[in-house]
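Issue 218. Parser rejects a valid record. Input:
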Amino acid sequence: MPAVTRNIGLSLGADICWPLAFEQILADSKLSLKVGKDVIDFACERVGLEPFALEKGCKYDVVVDRLTHWFKLQREWIKKGVLMDDLYVYNNPWSVQSYEKHTSYCAMTALGMPVPKTVMLPQKKYGELSDLDFTLEQYARMFELDTIGDGLSYPSFLKPFDGGGWRGVSKVDDASGLGKAYDESGQDLMHLQAAVHDFDVFVRAVGIGPQVRVMKYDPSQPLHGRYLVDRDFITKEDEQLVIDTTLTINAFFGWDFNSCEMLSKDGVYYPIDFANPCPDSQVNSIHYHWPWYVLSNLKWAVFNAATNRKMRKTVDFEPFYKIAAKDISYAEKLAGYAKLARERMSTTQFETFSNKHLRPLEEAAFAWFRSERCLEAIRMKVSNVFPEHEVDEFTAKFHALVMKSVDDLQAASK
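Output the parser choked on:
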């Protein structure tokens, strides 16, 4: 049988711990898979930043991308690879570039999701632009900010239409606070969004391909305390709703790796922030959930590489809008969206492939997380973000949470 090597590239920013885990687990697994007429093994390396000729081919079959959202050189290299070299990349780079939080609110509202009431405000300030004064004099309409705030009620949230990582987000409790926050927003284009008062639970769900992890989240805590360890904190029915919502959003925009935030109140899950196609993957923030992230990432990358799965180069909204136009309940619509999402993500094929081929990858992962190399990777990350006198404490804390997670994952896999 022909021997084939499939190459996986890691396009990285300030990532430390998860690439080490990804590379070493893949190497430890020694995967050699019979797929069709081929015997496939895998190579992995980190993608460099360098000049590239358009006609030069791309050596990678799959790229796990962490730079497209902010690093222009890598974004353009990846777009070239998709268009010219049949590269599969996490996530569709044109979608990441074009569809920010504002677009995601609009699209999911059109599909019937209960996005909280949101108003876009004109910029408070503008940069130097030719003909700006004439344009504003002719077309800028006066408005009463207090009236808009009262219409949404307080508290509410003022946040950039394209923000991320809680940048520029202000909780405003009254008209005075809204005015102050708006004055300080500068040239950012802002949304004012109604708060979900007295919510029951804050959920953050991360999708990696068809795999979804539902986590309890507390944004009031410092970074290392936001992702809570609680499992089974919502009903199975509610968990399925969250999963279906996440898959719908990700498939709609062509995102392989994205996180969705939702607030639950009185049985309704309100999506509040779900354009995050580069969620944090570092052990210092997701700790207990980190082994799931790493293993799910590996499985999805290997599946796409081994099966030579083709990337959808365009996003097609129309099948979702056809479902939205039907005279059926929202629950029925969401079920239809999720079915379409699972088809787009090749869910059945992925699950079959994983059950048949990826047990050695799981075993290598469980062994790696229990090894000294894992402890070393955790220490490296902790040393990068914590002061020296706290390194031992937080290394031990995160390592204990990782060990607990691996025990739970291994028990669930039997």
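Fixed in the parser; the record now loads. Residues 179 and 243 are 37 Å apart (CA to CA).
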